Amino acid sequence: MISGPADHATAVGLDPTDSPETYRERLLATITPGRPTLILTDLFGGTPQNVAIAATRSQPVRCISGANLGLVIEALTADEPLGDALVERLVAAARESIVDIAARMATRT
Amino acid sequence: MISGPADHATAVGLDPTDSPETYRERLLATITPGRPTLILTDLFGGTPQNVAIAATRSQPVRCISGANLGLVIEALTADEPLGDALVERLVAAARESIVDIAARMATRT
Fold first, then answer.
1. Domain span at residue B79?
2. Interface mutation vs chain A, best among B44, B56, B68, most A CBs within 10 Å
3. Which candidate among A36, B2, B36, B78 keeps its CA 20 to 30 Å from the CA of B85?
């Protein structure tokens, strides 16, 4: 709706009935072996995060926790290769998108 | 599910059929006049953000954009009064929750 079709992106939700093992199977099924893949998770330390870390050991997978909508949009619209520079840029952009509106409005006056 | 019941919190989604005016009416209907209220929005510059800013002019409302799950949990479990100190703490915590996992793992070795 915001950034157009996202055919190269997949959402893998953690269901209440999932075990870490079933979630891992479903997550890994979405990863094309050898293809650079970025995984965005909601919380550092949660099950999706821990499962994703395991995936980074066998595949060219990078992972960012604490995703917000700004991060998702930046990631979907990025056209750089997946590496340190892109991950650093995405993390910085996502952090900068978290704004105390009162403080931001004050600096405009 | 993660932080227990949240009777004092309300989600006000932006529907595809909403105009800024109808969204404003629905948002304002959830705010108890005079009661300090924190609004978390997804994107800086989006309609919910812009409508929330208008609400801050007539009510003791604070607003943070770029919400992620960590921010929602921190806000739901906060027990301080809603003011600059709390908003600053929430913004900092939310930013710190956005982590490049490869970098984090590297600092652990």
1. 20-108
2. B68
3. B2
